[in-house]
Amino acid sequence: MQKKTLGIIGGVGPLATMYIGEMIVRRTAAEKDQDHVNMVITNNTNIPDRTAFILGESEDNPVPVLISDSRRLESAGAQVLAIPCNTAHSFYSELQESTELPIINMVSETARRAKELGASRVGILATSGTITTEVYQLACERNGLIPVIADPKIQEIVMSVIYDDIKAGRPANREKWDLIEQALKEADCDKVILGCTELSIVREELQLGEEYIDSLLVLAESAIERCGYEVKR
After folding, report:
1. Catalytic one among 140, 189, 196, 227?
2. Contacts of 173 by beta carbon, 8 Å cutoff, 6+ apart
3. Which of 4, 140, 167, 177 is deepest in the core (most CB within 10 A)?
4. Alpha helices of the chain — where are they, by DSSP H?
C-alpha cells in the first residue's frame, strides 16, 4: 500500500493533540525515522468549544474553523485527515462533505473496536455535547452493543474531570474518577469507552484498566493503518 501523509486537525484540545502525535510514533512498527508516519499537525486553539455550541451555550460555530483547518492541511500535503476530538464528530457528515480527503471516523472505529473485544454492555464517558448528539449511542447500536450513559450527577463529574482538571492543565482527580468508576460497575458495564480525548490523559495518569477502550488510541492505530503503515503489536 502506498504511504500517505496524515493531517491532524488539532487544538481540540491541545494536550490531546500532542498526545496522539506521540501515540502514533510509539505505536508504529518502525526501525528508523523514515519508517514512521509522515504527519502535518495543526494545533489551532481558536476552534470554538464544540460542547458549548451543541448545548446552545455559545453561538460560535466550530465547523467553519474545522473546515478551514482541513483545507490548510490539504494544501500542506495531507492525504488522510484525523480529528482528535470526539465531540467534533457530531459534525462528521458536514466536515466530510467539505473535503475530498477521507476523514477517519474515530467514533465508528471505537464502537467497532468494542465489538471486536467482545463487549456487550458498553459505558460511554464523553462530553455532554457528545452525549446529547448520541453519536456514540448510535454507533454502538449499529454494532449490536448496548450503550450506557451516566446519570446527570455522574455526567457532571465527568465534565468536571474534562474541563476543570485536564483542559485546565491540572492532574486527573482520583476521587472524582472513583465515583465515576463505581457508577459504571453498578450499571454492569463490561467495557467502557473513553469517548473524550481528554479522558485518554486520565487513562495514562491514573493507569486505568483494560476494561477501558481509549478512543484516542483507536484513532491513532486507525491512522497508522489508513496511511499504509503497520501498527506495532
Report:
1. 196
2. 160, 161, 165
3. 140
4. 14-27, 50-54, 63-75, 92-97, 106-116, 128-133, 135-142, 152-159, 174-186, 197-206, 215-226
DSSP for 49-64, written as a single string = PHHHHHTTS----SHH
Q: Can you tell me which residue has the cell 489508513?
A: 226
Which residue, 196, 226, 205, 197, is CA-closest to 18?
197
The answer to whether 220 touches 200, Cβ cutoff 8 Å, is: no
Question: What is the SS3 assignment for 98?
Answer: coil
The span from the CA of 62 to the CA of 53, in Å, is 8
Contact 109, 135 (CB under 8 A): no
* Cis upstream peptide for 13 (omega within 30°): yes
- What radius of gyration do the chain's Cα atoms show? 17
Active-site hit among 85, 140, 189, 227: 85
The amino acid present at 69, given as its one-letter code, is D
The two most distant CA atoms of the chain are separated, in Å, by: 49
- C-alpha cell at position 1: 500500500
Q: Give residue-wise pLDDT tens across range 101-122.
A: 999 999 999 999 999 999 999 9
Other CB atoms within a 10 A radius of the CB of residue 165 amount to 19
CA angle, residues 158, 42, 81, in degrees to nearest 5:
85
pLDDT tens, 121-148? 999 999 999 999 999 999 999 999 999 9
Q: What would the pLDDT profile of 152-202 be if each residue is shown by its tens digit?
A: 999 999 999 999 999 999 999 999 999 999 999 999 999 999 999 999 999
Q: Among this protein's residues, is 189 annotated catalytic?
A: no
